[in-house]
Amino acid sequence: MEDLPLVLSHAYINGQWIAADNGATLSVVNPANGVLITEVPDMGTSEAQAAVVAADKALQGWRKTTAKHRANLLKAWFELIVEHADALAKLLTTEQGKPYKEAYGEVIYGASFIEWFAEEAKRTYGDHIPAAMPGNRYLTIKQPVGVVTAITPWNFPVAMITRKVGPALAAGCTVVVKPGEDTPLCALAMAKLAEQAGIPAGVINVVTTARPAEVGEVLCTHPLVRKVSFTGSTPVGKHILRQAADTVKKVSMELGGNAPFIVFDDADLDKAVQGALISKYRNAGQTCVCTNRLYIHDAVYDQFMARYIEAVADLKLGDGLAEGTEIGPLINARAVAKVDTLVVEAISQGANLVLGGQIADVGEQYYQPTILSDVTEQMNIAHQELFGPVTTVFRFNDEEDVIRRANDTPYGLAAYFYSRDNSRIWRVSEALEYGIIGINEGIISTEVAPFGGVKESGCGREGSKYGIEDYLEIKYLCLGVDQSPQY
């Protein structure tokens, strides 16, 4: 692994690079070829508790630093991430599988949250409120919520960390990060760069583990933890909410999705094809905002499908570090089995296999880019978060009907539609029950806009000016003043 200079094999707690108390390790494997990259500590409850205590101890000093001081340290961290973007991207591709170009884009995107919240650190303003009583003055100030647990997924192992740690540190909080067990190396590399930037011991802690439920219980129930930020599946998010409830912690939940992508009869079809292609097949379909259900108006169905099938058929599978690769492997064998099972079941229920539908010849963890047509809402696949390179295609001919069908899901993270009618754009945008709407655009994530869902897709927002609010508490100060002098 000499070409991966940021590979680290120890967890990071209280400024120390350490092994598990019992010496246990977790193997990190390249999903493209099954080759062992390295082993990291397989930590348990005692190490998780130690990380929380370290974060709480560091909090006492960190929360007292000035916003400008925190901003300068975050800027230094941002600059180091950008400086090491190539090395981080190669590491990301090696442990996660996405093509290098996508990985590099994620690193720069992830760095943007550190830069953004470095700037927002200095803008956590309070208020002066006009008093109801002549002898009082009313003020509000904003203070850090305290120790934060950041539980992050494997599909964006850089950006999902920076989107949580950036605002937490900017607000004056300290953090314990538990990365996904398939992709712990990016988290450790980011911690190393934070250490080099001068962020003090205990402010960031990274606990690696192959026992997420055991460690997660500590991180979600420990009385010193005051906020939990989680990105992952809805069932796990609900479990975490129940765990956090006993001590009434603040929570941010970015959970599952079942994104519709609607192409109306007045859409620019070339743009719609490209938007659907990138929204569906980015990271081999392993994103929470991926298109899951493609609704095409009858009037343009044949034209759209002809262009879309041709574009999907041209996608190149392979190792993410190989030149020209557009789709890498799925994260593990379980993911491949889930996708294949859903496809086989849908075909048995009447879906038409247009393209793909099998494990690819490239390797055991590669699934062919797949298109299923004639899908209906009665099929199980219509109600699942696919997390794989599979497009399910539905037909429609009425705006009101397609809105109803698009909303007929417990999820509400992202939705997309293509239309050139301004009145329709407003109607549909307001009618779709989702936290994020892409209008004539397939890529929607940016550090300057709020990211998050409604319904069972979560609560809270990440990124933008709203993203730091979840890491702050508002304190009201009621000041009695001496009114005796008269002027």
Automatic annotation (TrEMBL):
Please name the Pfam families in this protein's record.
Aldedh
The record's listing under CDD domains reads: ALDH_F5_SSADH_GabD
SUPFAM superfamilies the UniProt entry points to: ALDH-like
Biological process according to GO: gamma-aminobutyric acid catabolic process
Q: Which residues form the Aldehyde dehydrogenase domain?
A: 17-476
- Catalytic residues, per the record, are E254
Name the InterPro entries for this protein: Ald_DH/histidinol_DH, Ald_DH_C, Ald_DH_CS_CYS, Ald_DH_CS_GLU, Ald_DH_N, Aldehyde_DH_dom, Aldehyde_DH_Superfamily, Succ_semiAld_DH
GO molecular function per UniProt: succinate-semialdehyde dehydrogenase (NAD+) activity
List keywords of the entry alphabetically.
Oxidoreductase
What does the sequence similarity comment in the record state about its family?
A: Belongs to the aldehyde dehydrogenase family.
The molecule here is called: Succinate-semialdehyde dehydrogenase (NADP(+))
Q: What is the lineage of its organism?
A: Bacteria, Pseudomonadati, Pseudomonadota, Gammaproteobacteria, Vibrionales
Q: Which gene encodes it?
A: gabD
